[in-house]
Amino acid sequence: MKNRYDTIIVGAGPAGMTAAIYIEEGRGKWKEKPSHSSPARYNRAGRTLLLEKDDRVGRKILVTGNGRCNITNLDQKPEYYRSDAPGKAWSIFLQFNETQILALMKKLGILTKDRQGYVYPYNDQASTVREAFEKYLQSFPGLSIRTGHRVKRLKWDPASKLFEVKTASEGEIQSFFAPTVIIATGGFAGVPAGAGGDGFRFAGKAGHSLVPPEPALTSLCSRAPFLKKLAGVRCRAAVTLLVGDEAVYKEEGEVQWTDYGISGVVVFSLSRFAVRALKEKKQVSVSLDLMPDLSKNQLFHLLKEFRDNCGYKDGPALLNGLLSSRLSPVILREARIKENCKGGDWNDEDIRRLVEAVKGFILRIHDHKSYEKAQVTMGGVPLDELTDRLESVFLPGLFFAGEVVDVDGTCGGYNLSWAFASGKAAGMGVKHRLMDHCK
Ligand SMILES: Cc1cc2nc3c(=O)[nH]c(=O)nc-3n(C[C@H](O)[C@H](O)[C@H](O)COP(=O)(O)OP(=O)(O)OC[C@H]3O[C@@H](n4cnc5c(N)ncnc54)[C@H](O)[C@@H]3O)c2cc1C
Fold first, then answer.
1. What is the pLDDT along the chain (439 residues), one digit of tens a residue?
2. Which of 68, 232, 329, 407 could disulfide-link 83, Cβ–Cβ 3.0 to 4.6 Å?
3. 404 Cα nearest atom in ligand 1
4. End of a domain among 369, 398, 428?
5. By alpha-carbon position, which residue is closest to atom 35 of ligand 1?
6. Which residue in 62, 72, 70, 47 sits closest to 145, CA to CA?
């Protein structure tokens, strides 16, 4: 049969490429031990097709980590992998954890370094990672890579027990056939509007439900009038996400103020919870503790000392050294203290309000940045509709890997970690299914 493969992988991102590696490496191993037993047939008949709509594989890797590619992280915890089935996400990650990811990088010839646990290629160039994957994939004789091929349709034919995968390439429609398919098409994040989401469509056609996809690891927008004055300010803060009055997430780190709201790693980390709450039309705000190293009591006494020793200074001058000079006037206004009022005129009640403003500055959030500015898509194919090897429970032979699955990592290399781990799980799943077929 023309265009008949053992496996077709749709999407050559980190997930699809890792899946291809583990399918093809398996073949290599079987080759080393030729025998007439069933697994050898899997080897000889074996051919994998990797289809990518872009003109090269792994393009998105180039923009990761600001062009440096944060490959993984040495600090791993279950809560860094968010999903409606978080336990299952974690157990799949554990089958291919950060140590194994680092071993894969070494095998690909990528020297890595870690900065406080955050792992990058040694030369800080994301292109190294993309190219290493590409070269390694090209070294497998059983793997065909076709770029510029967008998969438009996926159909299961029960009579032939094959999937038909229809692609469009420069106006030409082609069909490819295989008993196993891996959907690794990523999500909507970081791609131009309207360009992503094919994998979600294929999943729906195969009978899967979807945890509603939404942008995650994104910035939050506020209508607060003072933001224009704060654009560009960076400060350390402990940020608590409030949904109504309930504190749902807290993290400490650098906050970047922009003319539309707040951004930065710490904001990215909590954004998925804010996005969901906004979608549910709940009231969302963040409470910023702008001096997390001091307790309220310590700050109260420090400000009293400042007042007593330096009462000749006005508010902004008194706060100079504690807060960014552009933040101080905003905080003073929040505490209802006039900017030109000398510190010596502050009473204890003024100082108490100031402490509250510094350690519990409330910013009302009304929106979030969209997919184009987000780093990942939350939601996707529910894990409870997939086996531990990420095979569809509705349509055996159909696998999913990477961002298309309902798992989104927090900031710090966790999304690539998930892409590699889920890619390996699906690749191994395909290999086992093909071996079963050969028995
Ligand atoms: C700006 C930015 C920075 C990031 N930085 C980091 C970071 O430093 N560390 C980290 O861990 N994560 C980072 N991420 C997230 C990470 O890049 C993704 O989570 C990861 O790439 C997902 O891998 P994937 O293989 O599932 O999907 P993708 O990387 O999106 O790959 C999917 C592939 O499928 C192809 N495709 C889609 N539809 C079709 C179709 N119909 N037919 C054929 N091909 C198709 C796409 O062209 C694409 O090549 C970042 C994301 C962005 C946007």
1. 889 999 999 999 999 999 999 999 867 544 444 444 444 444 444 699 999 999 999 999 999 999 999 999 999 999 999 999 999 999 999 999 999 999 999 999 999 999 999 999 999 999 999 999 999 999 998 999 999 999 999 999 999 999 999 999 888 999 999 999 999 999 999 888 778 899 999 999 999 999 999 999 999 999 999 999 999 999 999 999 999 999 999 999 999 999 999 999 999 999 999 999 999 999 999 999 999 999 999 999 999 999 999 999 999 999 988 999 999 999 999 999 999 999 999 999 999 999 999 999 999 999 999 999 999 999 999 999 999 999 999 999 999 999 999 999 999 999 999 999 999 999 999 999 988 766 5
2. 407
3. 26
4. 369
5. 11
6. 47
**Token reading at 419:** 């892409």
Residues 43, 32: Cα–Cα separation, whole Å: 10
Indicate whether 165 belongs to any domain. Answer: yes
Angle between helices 38-45 and 414-438 (to 10 degrees): 120
Nearest CA to ligand 1 atom 37: 185
Q: For a pocket test of ligand 1, which of 185, 191, 369, 373 has the largest count of ligand atoms closer than 8 A to its C-beta?
A: 185
Structure tokens at 368: 């979030």
Range of the domain at 319: 219-369
- Tell me: do 195 and 225 sit in the same domain: no
Residue with tokens 């955050």: 118
